[in-house]
Amino acid sequence: MENSTPMLRQYSEIKKEYPGTILFFRLGDFYEMFNEDAVIGSRELQITLTARHKDSPNPVPMCGVPHHAAAGYITKLVQKGYRVALCEQAEPAAKGIKLVKREVVRVITPGTAIDEQISNAKESVYLCSIVSEGNTVAAAFLELSTGEFSVTLASGVKALETIADQIHRFPVREILTDSGMQSVISKSMGMDTKSSHLGFSEINGNPTASATVGKFVITLVDRDYFDVRNAERLLKDQFGVRELTAFGIADHPHCISAAGACLQYARETQGVSVEHISEITFFQPSEYLVLDAVTLSNLEVMESRSEQPKRTLLGIIDETVTGMGGRLLRSWLIRPSIKRSEIETRLSAVDELSGSILRVGLRHLLKGVLDIERLVGRLNLASITARDLLSLSRSLSQTPEINRLLSDAESLLLQVLSENIFELPEVRELIDRSISDEPPLNLLDGGTIKRGYNAELDEIRDLADSVKQAIAGFEEQERRETGIGALKVRFNNVFGYYIEVSKANLAKVPTRYERRQTLANAERYTTSQLKDWETKVLGAEETMLQLEHNIFREVRDKVVSSTRKLQSTARALATLDVLSALAETAARRNFVRPVLHDGDEIEIKSGRHPVVEAFLAGSFVPNDTYLNNSTDRVLILTGANMGGKSTILRQIALIQILAQIGSYVPASAARLPIVDRIWTRVGASDDLASGRSTFMVEMTETASILHNATPRSLVLLDEIGRGTSTFDGLSIAWAVAEYLHNSSEHSAKTVFATHYHEMTELAENLPGAKNLQISATEKDGNVVFLHKLQPGKASKSYGIAVARLAGLPQPVIERAKDVLRKLEKYELAVFSQEKLNGIGAAAGRSAATQFSLFAIANEDILNELRMLDVESMGSDDARQYLKNLKQRIN
Question: Rounded to whole angstroms, how far apart are CA atoms 890 and 876?
């Protein structure tokens, strides 16, 4: 860079230390980007690309964003998969300093974003690292903003699939791995991901990666990150222990490697020791109710598949009033418990809160609690502001009254929570005594420390104030002595204090004035006395800023010493928020406490779909459900299109999920077992990018269910086999239902919704199969949906009636009715002869099965041909007859 300035050389040196990032370089009130970063920033942020030294042979591309609005721009870049290095001024700009010192204070990546402007208050941001060797895969998950740290391990041929499922459930925003694992991870997650030169991910050829559930970027790091010896040393140092046995990972080197990589990356990007990461939890994926990504999507637990984002189970029950409570509720929903004692403990707490004034009082107090979890994170990451400290103090001020309300609590969980809510009066007193009531956003602006906290700081402030008052008096004195009424005393960072006199008054300027600068319409001067005052003021202000910075760090460090108690308090308050929110939901929506048992029966009285009920214009029709592992193992559900079969399937699953997070459920009564996994195969979708048709996706998902379901599972199948020909699909559906009924290893409780009415024959042949139908009727040619679940089998699906409602032309409707009558005649003829032999048996197959749809639809023509006297026809008559027949067929 031949025309490089000292500032650009400083930029280049810092940029070399942070490859693979977009460097936000602080210049005054802006963050500037240069060279390649500027080109990318201009494109991705849709801001103007300009250049320094435009007229030189080598102009330097540049663009910038205002520092006060930087969070929004950083958010856009991070959500697109970029890593942003934040380079700040490390000293205030002052007279005589031509180039201020600058340094990178933090690197913000998709998996390490901690700022409240970047991350949603009620959504966690997880960083993940993966280690794989043979059929063993370990993954670590770190929520940097709160310090939550966990690791898991899977083995066997489906180990990577198991870990991929965990990645979707947490959810993960960024995955650390090395080049050897990159393609394997991409394939397991169903994504075509390749690394870019900047170190962020390109997904499907585009350098973007949406930071939403199930979507992430892959960051390639050096293999040394995963060295087990280095990782073990790092973890022991972080947790202050001599061995890792207490955390359950001492015998799992793959887990140690994965956790070490996460921790090292966090330290390097934040530039601090991340002391709030004080422990790590080892868990097995089987320790929770398994809800894979397909099931979460099908049931719309977290995200809606419609254009109404709040029409989800989370949207209905989320009455939390704090960010940390909202995140905990999401965690419970994605990973419901399978421990009956834990669930019962939560239910007892919800029970105590649901019908009492205690809930109202607690929720009122919790509204005054800010996100202590993330405030403690920023505290330990050295990014906390003075205003954050005040928020922490005000949040803690609610704890004495919260503990008072909990003092008479009867449920064990509420008592335990109270014991873990620390009031910390010494922390509150320190913050309130030291931090100004309205501190500035930036520590360098001064005025952060409250007057009266530090005697030295107060003395310097008094000196600066007295000098400023003297300077203000000096202006008025000079006006009188010189007779220049427009004389002004001003200050700027370049020239310090100066006297400004207009051109018209230059003749009145006394000789004791020293010229400093000439302007178009004025001259600027100084005096020996003004220079003396300037030295005192600037020296005092510089000393004040440095002293304030030191005092603030001392206050922050004292608060840091209470990190463990603050984290305990935050977790307890978050749990209290979730429990009171579930109680609020129960009270508002008429939910009841489920009865849990160790058997296998699912018995729901007047069950309701919580989401459909909330948004339904009319009243919701409740229904009973009964399932067990013996007499009612497989329920064959038939009924009209739009009758509500899918709603029934989903409401059973949602009621089970709610119960296993410790929530009341939408029913008049419910007796429920603890299930280990909920499987769903609902709706049609394809994966054309991977070359998989809709039917292939359906069969793949079905195969996973058949291979992995257990007698403790709940399986919900909707329209299996509809993606292929009628008899192929029916044969597959029949075989799937039989397998789930008969397999000793995979005989799960199953609800099978279908339009194949022939499937109802299963109830006559299988002891554990039962027929249920969603009732509907026709009136004056129109279908009336009753939405009532009752025993028996439906006689028809009313598909043509629904087609009529959708607006198909009347000739199409009439022709469809005619074809349906003929198809039903022949299909019933086939199955009436074969029901004793089972679907697909070769013996006794009627000749009717050979008829094509075309042949059956044109039965009148076929009958005419059968009656035709060919021998009596001449050649011309035969030719004309065939011509007319062809026209009729077409």
Answer: 21
* pTM for this predicted structure: 0.83
Q: Residues for the chain: how many in total? A: 890
Percent of all residues in the chain with a pLDDT value above 70, rounded to a whole number: 87
- 140, 258 in Cβ contact below 8 A? yes
Task: Return the amino acid letter for 25.
Answer: F
Taking alpha carbons only, the member of 84, 175, 163, 77 closest to residue 126 is 175
Asked if 352 and 409 touch (Cβ cutoff 8 Å), the reply is: yes
In sign, the C-alpha dihedral spanning 18, 21, 22, 26 is negative
Q: Are 128 and 111 in contact (CB under 8 A)?
A: yes
Which one, of 117, 118, 108, lies nearest residue 85 by Cα? 108
Residues in Cβ contact with 714 at an 8 Å cutoff, skipping those fewer than 6 apart? 602, 627, 652, 653, 656, 675, 677, 678, 679, 748, 749
Which pair of tokens denotes residue 591? 């939910």
Our separate counts of H helices and E strands in the chain read 30, 28
Q: Which residues contact 266 (CB under 8 A, 6 or more apart)?
A: 112, 127, 142, 144, 274, 277
Other CB atoms closer than 10 Å to residue 700's CB: what's the count? 13
173 DSSP β-pair partners: none
Which residues neighbour 694 within 8 Å (Cβ) at sequence distance 6 or greater? 684, 685, 686, 723
Contact 716, 679 (CB under 8 A): yes
- Residue-wise DSSP of 714-736: EEEEESTTTTS-HHHHHHHHHHH
What the block records as the tokens of 182 is 């990159």
Distance CA 251, CA 249 (A): 5
15 Cα distance to chain centroid: 32
3-state DSSP call for residue 817?
helix
Please report the sign of the dihedral spanned by the C-alpha atoms of residue 615, residue 617, residue 622, residue 627: negative
For residue 190, count other CB atoms closer than 10 A to its CB: 13
Between the CA of residue 688 and those of 92, 191, 305, 694, what are the distances in Å? 56, 12, 19, 9
Report the DSSP pairing between strands 634-639 and 769-779: parallel
658 closest CA partner among 582, 758, 767, 753: 582
Mean pLDDT, the chain, whole residue set: 86
Q: What is the mean pLDDT of residues 838-857?
A: 45
Residue 834 CB neighbours (<10 A): 20
498 and 526 Cβ atoms separated by less than 8 Å: yes
Q: Phi/psi zone of residue 868: left (φ > 0), alpha (ψ -120 to 50 degrees), beta?
A: beta
Rounded Cα distance between 163 and 506, Å, is: 80
Contact between 652 and 299 under an 8 Å Cβ cutoff? The reply is no
Amino acid at 671: R
Return d(Cα 106, Cα 104) in angstroms, integer.
Answer: 6
pLDDT higher than threshold 70 for residue 412: yes
> Shortest CA distance to 119 belongs to which of 94, 97, 144?
144
Coil, strand, or helix at residue 640? coil
Specify burial of residue 718 (Cβ count, 10 A radius: 0-12, 13-18, 19+): buried
β-partners of residue 55 are: none
d(CA 663, CA 655) in angstroms, rounded, equals 9
Query: What's at 773, amino acid-wise?
Result: Q
State the angle between helix axes of 357-366 and 563-589 in degrees (0 to 180), rounded to the nearest 10. 130
Rounded to whole angstroms, how far apart are CA atoms 44 and 64?
Answer: 13
CA distances from 125 to 86, 120, 262, 297 (A): 19, 9, 13, 20
Report residue 309 as tokens: 């984002």
What is the rounded distance in angstroms from the CA atom of residue 239 to the CA atom of residue 413?
A: 28
Q: Torsion-angle region of residue 248: left (phi > 0), alpha (psi -120 to 50) or beta?
A: left
Q: How many CB atoms sit inside 10 A of residue 352's CB?
A: 18
Encode pLDDT of 571-621 as tens digits. 999 999 999 999 999 999 999 999 999 999 999 999 999 999 999 878 899
For residue 678, which of 626, 632, 716, 633 has the smallest C-alpha distance? 716
Radius of gyration of the CA atoms of the chain, in A? 36
